[in-house]
Amino acid sequence: MKPDQQTSDLEQQVILLALRSRLAILMLQFIFNLIIPDHHSDAFVSPFSSLPKSSLDTGVDWLLGGLLRWDAQYHLHVSIYSYVYENSLAFFPGFAVCIKLIGSIFGYALFPLNIVSVHLISAVLFNMVCFILAAKALFRLSVKKLQDSNLAFLACTLFCINPASIFFTAPYSEALFSLLTFSAMLAEDGTWKQYIVISLSAVARSNGVTNVGFPAYGLLKKHAYMPKSILNWISFLVQLAVIVVSTMSLFFLYHMYSYIRFCTDYPYKHSPEVIETALAKSYVLAGQGTSGMCNQTHIIPYFYIQNHYWNVGFLEYFQLKQIPNFALAFPIVYYVSTECILYFKRNTDLTKSLGLSRVHQNTRMASIYEYIVHLSVLLVICLFFVHIQVATRILCSSSPALYWLWAMIIYSKERNTVFSLSDVPHMTTFSFTIFSYCLMYFILGTILFSNHYPWT
Fold it and tell me: Which of 207, 358, 395, 446 has the fewest CB atoms inside 10 Å of its own CB, making it the most exposed?
């Protein structure tokens, strides 16, 4: 088989595997939501839960209700009501805007259903499409960087069964974010296409701002060996400013919108159920000008919201009562930290030269240098600044390097023979451990999440 034909065939297998993995999630959440009683948590419940339901809506809830848990309530809440409560500002608008647009189109075909059912169906279908396209983009990026289609296929297999899989199907922004992130990485450095996709990723999830590092690093590589003249330095700084402004424009526009919505007394018209819930839960309503962030020193409202409502901040989560959550995140933290440290130790020349060494420019290790740095930065953020249990879904949705490192380990240990899940029972211990971890979290996460039990 010709190399190009083999790559094309493997890409089709990746697409099929991505689809099958999403269908497996849907089946698991349906079965276990049906047979296991829901846990009663104190999580946010949108006022849309009080809207009238027909028998068809009850059927949709019966089939897909296991996906409308935890932060999925926030995402659908924003897509239906927009930002009516201050705490909802923590959930960036990219995903909600897409669901609102799709829901407005599907609404005509699904007119017997209420708006909640329409948006839930829209979100699930949208995430399935995004996940499949993200897997395809990851495969192409992996082939480009790893120069091995079999290795790329193995990395995509791990992505399709990644330990945060439930969040790529439920109404969360992970699938969209992965698609935007992998597409931005796949685009040529310094192009407007890359800048636009990065700017969209920055309003899909807050950690999308780290993606600006890729075009910035590409610019650094371009100027690294140019003569160090004043003109070249000015050119470098101007181009860097263009990158930052173009990629961060939507991010800052969203925060300007947040200030206007909650720090002015514009008389927004809120629905009765929104007002009733706000009074019952003491939520800060848009248009009242009473938000605490208006008098804070936080330049970015997101930081105020995260700290005020979820106690997010440097080392804020290091408490004895959070030990179970640290245990939940331990596998991903251990794998990522160990492999990143080993990468930097084994590639000291690259590390010392910030990946700019001419000697190693054409090697596989050099081609993934900036991705390892990006993964390391995300790990530090997860360890010291956010709720540690979300590290699993942040890392799994944001970094191709996670899957590359795992794939390279398995590929080397299995002597280039393992490319199918059916081979898992016959693997070496370390390879088996990685696959077992992914599959266990794939299944266990779906079961717990769909029944409202705490998860990542």
Answer: 358
